[in-house]
Design goal:
The structure is a homodimer. By secondary structure, chain A is α+β, with helices and mostly antiparallel strands. Helices cover 54% and strands 9% of the residues of chain A. The first copy, chain A, contains 23 helices and 13 strands. In chain A, strands 1, 2, 3, 5, 6 and 9 form a six-stranded mixed β-sheet that branches. In chain A, strands 4-8-7 form a three-stranded antiparallel β-sheet. A two-stranded antiparallel sheet of chain A has the order 10-11. In chain A, helix 9 (343-380) runs antiparallel to helix 10 and helix 9 (343-380) packs across helix 17. Chains A and B meet through helix 4, strand 2, strand 7, strand 12 and helix 9 of A and helix 4, strand 2, strand 7, strand 12 and helix 9 of B.
């Protein structure tokens, strides 16, 4: 036998393109219809596809070489894209621009931030806090179109993040000159993390303590010019530095800013809410709460982003699992088994698929509610009647729900990214397979726009307060109606346990909804119990809330999962008949898998018995096996092009090995070993000189 | 009032150095004694301190600028350190070298890998698989001392990772020339992830299918020269490329290798186990299992590494939490509240502190057992009596235990790093605060040396098989003795539930040990149930194991937590009296917090009632508050110098803001904005030309 003739002795290697093609032979649902349903309509899908194609074809928007760029190149590449997009953002319909940004947030999250700092944060601050004439002035100056002005958002400081009320930067009114003096009194007052400050911004929306006539009025917003718009030299009293390398999103040039007695005209304070007159009188707004509406938008968009990023991660992991083979019979002539055929691999990925759909639908509904709320708020004007009270109630509820959703969806997505990455085995550790950078980029979502832990506590506080109000006869908001059924007047749990042990009952959508309602009610009850125990110890209200923080956080988690499941089921019910079976299966998998993960809660609330939990576990196994049949089709329904997926392992055609090899070799062409002469040759050729000392006469005896 | 006179209006800013100093006023235990206990003796602590100081003082070992190095600089910096360490490794006592490497693994994990690839993997392959004369030959050639040879380890392929038996590279014996022909028959056979291959290695330990006389004998190891040691030119038939950027550990130059009919002498096959004679006869070893001992070492070291890296992460997070202040009373003249004083922050960090101690002690014990086992194995020789059977049993048990520990400890540590990072708020996202890179570097531990999911399934398979053996009268290994008490002859659970509701009983170490034993027994029982259900369906043994994989993985998790708790308690009992209270508290926190996280298991096994779970939750809250008093002292006891901690937020003296600012500004000096002329100026100064088309005559009517 020739030494070249060995193929028949080895296991057969399957063609990955055929492996993935098999998966598409008989989807249980019309894929295109599901895409429309996920996107919210055929027209949106088509607009998305046009945008994806435009991005893919523009050389500016190349992204597969990102891992090989230096920090400086990364930032320059990002800046080179700003102008084109700024023109599109101001000339194209808002809906299209929003959709474009939501795609860019998946393709290039760091650029999304760079762009969003101006349009979302800086211009958003003007929109939300400037008077009409101030807004007109800044728009005239080019603040919307980035003609003459590029903005940044100066809120956080080196020593102060979540507690905006604790910022140290001061804005002191100098009546003599009709100016504010912006000043950073200490090192910890240094503005820190200011995106765009290091290299890009001409102006900054600075959050500072308003001080007038020796009195502090709390944190307000001031437009401060940072750089001369012609020369880009720093303005007098402004010092700026570069924060350098970050965990992710290096496309944005975060910087620090110190102000040393910088003078700005009084009119640069944004005065939609609080006003300072020429005479130095401070006029505070009647309804400060209405200003919080603007805070919600970022959170709502992060729920969408969690869904969108999770869709990409699962596309990569599921498609790869349908072509990667490992172990199996291993006899010559047979092929190894697909990862996706292993129950444990299904178990790793497919509950995450169900979570992704839960987030898709929650994001859509949250977004609709938010738009409605904002249009109500904008129409309120100076009315102070019952409409305002209703709006404030609605605002509080949306604030709490969005806080919980933002926290748990961003945590969920971060986990999905890393689980998907780990499911790629060693290849997940390559920078070219897309998920390590996705993790680093996404991670900050758990911190900014409200640290997740603080948001969950806010949500939990709302749940406790609302439950207490309900005990005092106040009506419950729609999303908390389950409390009424689950908790009796004496505070005991009155929900009915699951009566049947049949798998179809235990894991039905109605049972799961009731189950989650029961544990959420129980968790809120326990948080109320701990809060009241704190009060009974003589703690202040705030300290009693601190005392109950563990159970409060837990209540927020249970409530948010319940919300996710209920909204998911509502979407299943509204969906086209052809899609209902697969969506219902995913909703059941979501509810049942999450219940198994938190089985203690269900046993404690008495809803499920131990045997029923075992039934749920068995259901999760069979549901995974059922979803597995459609798994690749579900990634197809997400509708991301290969350009957006941006991972050779997640290619539509399954040709993973060829394209992975091509990408790695094209980005890392072979060159001579760079340090052979300087380091390797001396290492290999060295000889160790004896390092014993000279002989000593005394030892020779 | 002058505009500069505002300090009295703002909240007071606390001195962070004073904030941390307060924490050290009254530790409940002698810190230095705990350091000795953690390290394993005063002499080890002293040796560690000497090594840390030596590293800190060497300019080669600067690490705080790592985030600003390019990929090429990172690799060159790493290579520049190899020579010095190679000389130390071969001239200093083994114990010192091991300790040095364990510190380097925390300080510079990527370098640890670069160095470990030669010493651990390449030379380890020679040690474990070469005959005595082969080993002597390669040592003579410089394979230990890196004089003439630097090695890499060629196991994984583009298409093959976990399944070593499925590798495609062939080593075909050519009797005519007494050579093996090494060949990569397909693209997926390309050696992939080979650390050191891209730029550094002269030789490779290649895993390939041994083919002799038309028969395949499975995967064996062959030494193949990659590069000329004088010119560093690639040898004929060898193609190598660079895998470029990775998620982390960029200090090591991973590469791919393709072999095209490369000829090596027959003697380059490592023949300690399988031998091929000149005539082409293949002599296979009687006890192939004994070769698996070498696999365990990497896992054991990763348990230690998990503990060591977690110590660093907690040092950073806890110290920062003792100086960072946020919210609180907020009146002028008062200071904000320390993060560490918030119950929820204690809840985030201090159970992780308890987990870290659990890993410290498990690692130590695992290491001791492994050393014992290896010395028994090495003394066995060709004996084939009962001593060998005992050794094989012991080996299997250690294999399974180390598989479970490696998986759950690396996952635990990865979670600890990210939880600690998130607890730093926005500053956790900076590359200069140390935890984002720690995450990226550590993540690969969950994949290499056995993918965690596959390892847990192996551990679970052992648990099921051992439980079945026990049912057939075989004795249980020590770590599984709990099965005897918990499971009756008929397979039902016979463990006794917790009888008291008193918090001191519910959360005592004895109760917690019994509780975990009971849930581990229950989980194993359920895995056996599912395995047997698979058999009853007519599945093959292997497929029945696949069928039961979810419950098998779960059994491995419960068993491993039980092991961690039992070993922790054993260490508490052996510890010096002064340390026992704090260690016992940490052990209780570990056991109770883990139980609350898995409360469903305890309710299902009937060990705890729902009310007792609530008692445990309350205990976790008070235990966190108790550990909080010593939290900074515990980080001091870890004994890492500021150099090793390598984060301005984790400094011993608490001077976080000054030093963070200094580091960021020194690494990122202010320079002119790099793309003002090319990108920003044109953006700011552009005007949009009208983009309506020309007028049309037909519209003028």
């Amino acid at each position: 036998m020739a030494v070249t003739d060995t193929a028949h002795l080895l296991p057969k290697v399957a063609d990955p393109k055929e492996s993935i093609a098999e998966e598409r032979k008989s989807p249980s649902f019309p894929i295109r219809e599901l895409t429309y349903w996920i996107d919210g309509g055929k027209n949106i899908t088509q607009m998305k596809e046009r945008i994806m194609l435009e991005l893919e074809r523009s050389p500016l928007w190349r992204v597969n070489d990102h891992p090989n760029l230096t920090l400086a190149e990364t930032r320059e590449r990002a800046m080179s894209k700003v102008r084109h997009l700024a023109d599109l953002a101001t000339s194209r319909p808002l809906e299209e621009s929003m959709l474009r940004m939501s795609i860019i947030s998946v393709v290039d999250p760091g650029f999304w931030t760079r762009f969003g700092v101006h349009f979302g944060l800086f211009f958003g601050a003007l929109q939300g806090q400037a008077t009409p004439s101030q807004l007109a002035y800044w728009m005239e100056r080019g603040a919307l179109s980035m003609q003459g002005i590029t903005g940044c958002f100066g809120m956080t400081e080196l020593g102060h993040g979540s507690n905006v009320a604790g910022l140290e930067t001061t804005a002191t009114y100098d009546k003599r000159t009709d100016e504010f003096v912006i000043h950073s009194p200490t090192l910890t007052a240094t503005k820190w993390w200011i995106g765009g400050a290091a290299h890009t911004a001409t102006h900054c929306a600075v959050y500072a303590q308003l001080i007038v006539k020796g009195k502090c009025y709390g944190t307000k917003t001031f437009v401060v010019q940072l750089r001369d718009t012609k020369t880009f030299q720093l303005m007098p009293g402004v010092n700026i530095g570069d924060l350098g390398k970050k965990m992710g999103r290096d496309q944005i040039d975060n910087g620090w800013i110190r102000f040393t007695y910088v003078r700005i005209p009084r009119s640069n304070m944004l005065m939609k809410h609080t006003k300072v007159t020429r005479a130095g009188d401070v006029i505070e707004p009647a309804l400060a709460q209405l200003a919080y509406g603007a805070l919600i938008q970022g959170r709502v968009s992060m729920v969408s982003d969690s869904a969108n990023v999770a869709k990409r991660a699962l596309t990569i992991a599921v498609r790869y699992a349908s072509v990667r083979r490992q172990f199996g019979i291993g006899e010559p002539g047979t092929v190894e088994t697909k990862l996706l055929d292993y129950p444990i691999h299904q178990h790793r990925l497919l509950p995450l698929m169900a979570q992704t759909f839960a987030m898709v639908f929650a994001a859509r509904e949250m977004n609709t509610n938010y738009q409605k709320l904002m249009s109500v708020l904008s129409e309120l004007g100076d009315d102070k009647g019952p409409a305002v009270n209703d709006a404030i109630k609605n605002l509080k509820e949306t604030h709490a729900t969005s806080a919980g959703l933002k926290a748990f969806c961003t945590w969920m997505c971060l986990n999905i990214i890393d689980q998907c990455r780990q499911s790629l085995g060693g290849h997940g550790y390559s920078a070219y397979t897309g998920l390590s950078q996705a993790y680093s980029d996404f991670a900050v979502h758990c911190t900014w726009e409200g640290d997740n832990t603080i948001l969950t506590l806010q949500c939990g506080r709302y749940l406790v307060a609302t439950a207490l109000d309900a005990r005092n006869g106040q009506p419950l908001p729609a999303n908390m109606l389950y409390l009424k059924d689950a908790i009796a007047a004496d505070g005991s749990l009155s929900g009915k346990p699951c009566k049947s042990d049949a798998v179809d009952v235990v894991s039905s959508l109605n049972t799961l909804k009731a189950a989650w309602s029961s544990v959420a009610a129980n968790a809120i009850r326990n948080a109320v119990r701990d809060f009241e125990a704190g009060l009974a110890k003589g703690l202040s209200k705030d300290n009693a809330y601190e005392f109950s923080s563990a159970s409060r956080l837990h209540a927020a988690r249970m409530h948010t999962y319940t919300y996710l499941l209920h909204r998911f089921v509502a979407q299943v019910e509204q969906s086209p008949a052809q899609l209902r079976p697969i969506l219902a299966l995913l909703a059941r998998l979501f509810g049942a898998h999450s219940a198994v993960q938190h089985s203690g809660e269900f046993l404690q609330s008495g809803f499920y018995s131990g045997a029923q939990i075992e039934t749920l576990k068995a259901f999760v196994n069979t549901a995974c096996a059922d979803v597995r049949k459609d798994a690749v089709s579900l990634t197809d329904a997400f509708g991301y092009t290969d350009y957006v997926v941006n991972s050779p392992l997640g290619r539509y055609d399954g040709d993973v090995y060829e394209k992975y090899f091509d990408l790695v070799t094209s980005l890392n062409p072979t060159k001579p070993v760079p340090y052979f002469d300087s380091l390797i040759k001396p290492l290999l050729e060295r000889t160790n000189e004896s390092d014993t000392g000279p002989e000593l006469e005394i030892d020779q005896d």
